[in-house]
Structures are given as structure tokens and as C-alpha cells.
Amino acid sequence: MEGNYDLVIVGGGMVGAAVALSLADTELKIALLERSLPEAFSADQPMDLRVSALSPASIDLLNQLGAWQTLLSWRTCPYQRMRVWELDEDAEGVAGQAARNLATEFSAQDIAIPELGYIVENRLVQRALLDQLSGVGNVTLITDGVERIDYSAASTIIELDSGKSLMTPLVVAADGGQSMVRDAAALGAHQWDYEQLAMVINVETVLPQQDITWQQFHPSGPRALLPLPGSNASLVWYDAPDRIQQLMAMDFEQLKATIEANFPKRLGGIQSIQTRASFPLRRLHAQRYIDEGVALLGDAAHQINPLAGQGVNLGFQDVAAFSDVIHDALVQGESISSVDVLKRYEQRRRKGNLLMMQAMDLFYRLFSNQRKPLKLARNLLLGLAAVAKPARIKALRIASGIDRF
Ligand SMILES: Cc1cc2nc3c(=O)[nH]c(=O)nc-3n(C[C@H](O)[C@H](O)[C@H](O)COP(=O)(O)OP(=O)(O)OC[C@H]3O[C@@H](n4cnc5c(N)ncnc54)[C@H](O)[C@@H]3O)c2cc1C
Hints:
By secondary structure, the chain is α/β, with parallel strands linked by helices. It folds into 2 domains: 3-37 and 122-188 and 287-362, 3-Layer(bba) Sandwich (FAD/NAD(P)-binding domain); 76-120 and 192-282 and 367-399, D-Amino Acid Oxidase, subunit A, domain 2 (D-Amino Acid Oxidase, Chain A, domain 2), CATH 3.30.9.10. The chain has 12 helices and 21 strands. The protein has helices at residues 14-22, 56-64, 68-74, 93-102, 122-133, 180-184, 241-249, 252-262, 311-332, 339-367, 372-387, 389-399; strands at residues 3-4, 7-10, 30-34, 51-54, 77-79, 81-86, 104-107, 117-121, 139-143, 146-150, 156-160, 165-168, 171-173, 189-205, 212-217, 223-228, 232-239, 270-286, 290-291, 294-296, 302-303.
């Protein structure tokens, strides 16, 4: 046996690194396991494909953890507005006018905050958190993969790719949607794949549009823009797998012309395409987040349709709740690996995560569909959102992490 720890976090992605840092002020002896470390930041690097829209609540957490100032000094893109509409907005004449009236625009001003959020590259968030950990005495970052987990309520043994083993009374899963920890502890999951893939394309646009993120609903899936620094943007094209395969097979010239012909007019022209990749869309919810000696956080507990960019924002809310529960238990002298303590974390997070996932499912089903009654229902919804200010403000406060469901 190579090491005994009070707590072992499997996965040093954005969520795992944040949870380690959130417990850096305790006396706990912690190991953070990550199989591949992100490259250090350099300003001349091209922008990564994997980016996230971070809510004000996530930014508060990163600020408390000391990583936000670093990110601001690297590369971020704040946005103040978010616009959502249906395909018909681009139509000409009376039909177009009616649809334009149904477009809903949310603004930071509506809830008196300076920004609705920031778009940041996932690697940079992870890197800033890991850099912040480097001066922390009670957390050991181990760069190694997990080969096997022998879960037991009293003490779990984690075997690493290098042949070393760790032993701990509390294992925290932050190892993403395919969580090995979740399987080892038999916590179970309800999961399915949506009938769409998401293609992410980093482009440079002719028009500057850095203060807004927008999403156009289309019967075959949404088309979205997330602004990136400079005149760059991350486009997301959701569509059926065979259509995405076709798009992935195109050279950049063909793809550029296809985007210009199929994205809403407000995108304008594309100067150049830097990179693209496609991602499967999975919906996953763990049947239980905890058991004696184990807790799931972030994508290990829930994977959500990314159409409203809530995945890691929910993960950061898990981190804040878990950290509170552990700190309180330490003050009370309770065992942090006990079901009684860990249950408090599950109780604080499960319902809100589930409601957000259900809301995304509802949007997905309502908007990725050409059936007439559903079209009526969504026009009603967009129309309501356009005129009913209190409802719009409530939705915005929930999306920003200011209010909970
Ligand atoms: C197309 C797309 C767009 C998205 N956009 C947004 C957005 O705008 N906003 C948002 O909030 N969310 C977004 N998300 C979701 C977001 O990316 C995820 O919720 C987030 O990455 C989850 O973070 P995590 O740390 O829980 O898991 P992960 O990012 O999956 O990290 C898990 C970590 O664990 C490590 N690991 C796994 N297994 C092992 C092992 N056996 N041994 C050692 N290490 C291991 C991995 O190397 C990795 O670093 C999007 C997702 C997709 C697919």
C-alpha cells in the first residue's frame, strides 16, 4: 500500500480541482488523482474547442477559490445579453415580423448585474484551479490513472495505472460521465443518448458580437453562438448524427459556406474556421449520489443536455454544497464518510439538478420537433417569456445560479 488519505478525489477536471481547493483550509489529508494534466496557458495558443458559459454563481466560487483573477488575466469573454428565438425569425414579411416578436432576449440589466456570465475555455479553468493548488500543503496532486477501485464502506482501495495503491475512508467521484467510482460503488444511473450530436466549431467572424450569446431553435436542433475574445466565436450545431457526420467530413471551405447558408443571418460572414469536433449528447442521472464512504459530484452524478450551458455550473454548485457539508461536519466532530453527513450533500443538490435536467429535456422535446401542436406550445412559451417580465427574470436568476429551483 502506497498511501492512506482522509479523502481521495478521483478526477482533477474543473469539478475535482475545485473540490480539492475548497477543502484546502481543512486538516484533511487529501489526494487528487488526474490522469492527464492540462497544458499551461500561453497567450499565443489557439482557443480550445471545449468552452463553458460560466454563470455568476460559478464565478463567485472561482473567485473564493482564488482562481478567477488568474482566468481574467488569461482569456475570458464576458457577455451581457442572451437571445433565444425560433427559425422563423429570419423569415421575411408578416410571418418574420410575428416570429421576431416572439424572440426572447435576456439582459444582465434585467437583474441588475454587470454580466450574465463569461465564456471560458475548460482547460484554462482546470489549469487555474490546479495552479492555485500548488501551494497547498494538505492536497497531493497525483498524475496517474485509476486502474481499479475496490469499494468498501469502511475503506476503499484505489489501484493506479502505475501499480501504486491508495486507501481512503472517503472517495469523491469527479471523474466525469463515465465514472468508474460510480460503477465501483454500484450507485447506478438512469441514462440515455439524445437523438442528436453537437458539433462545436471555433470561427473568426466578420461582425463583432462579443456581448451576446444566442440560440436559434430549428426543427433538427438548435444553432448557437458563444462569443470568444477578439472577433472569435464558438458555434454549436446540434443535428441528427448522419447530418453531423456529413458536416464533419467537409473541408473548411465547404463547411464555411454551409454554415453561412444555414446559420441565422445575424451571424454574418465567417473569416476563417480554426477547428471543429463533435460530441455525443447524453442525459445521465445517478440513482444515488452517495453511500457510506463515497460521494459523486459534477458529471459523475449528472450529465445534462448542454443547450442552456448548465453542466459545469451545476457541478460547481455541487462543490459549494459538498464543501459546506464537510466543513460543518468537521466543526461538529462528525465522521465525514458517514451516510448521515453525506446525505445532507445529496439532499441539497439532487432536486435542483433533477429539475434543471427536466427543464432542458422539456426544451429539447418542445423545440426539436415540427409537430403543429408543439409549435403552438413553443410559440406560446416564447411569447409568454417575451411579455411576462417576472417569469423572465425568475428564469434568468435560476440560470445565473442566483436563485435555486
Ligand atoms: C458540447 C458541450 C458543450 C458544453 N457547454 C457547456 C457550457 O457552456 N456550460 C457548462 O456549464 N457546461 C457545458 N458543458 C458541460 C461541461 O463540459 C461538463 O459539465 C464539465 O466538463 C464536467 O466537469 P467534470 O469535472 O465533472 O467532468 P470532466 O470534465 O469529465 O472531468 C473528469 C476528469 O476526470 C479525469 N478522469 C476520468 N477518469 C479517470 C481515471 N480513471 N483516472 C484518473 N483521472 C480520471 C479526466 O481526465 C478528467 O480530467 C458542455 C458539454 C458539451 C459536451
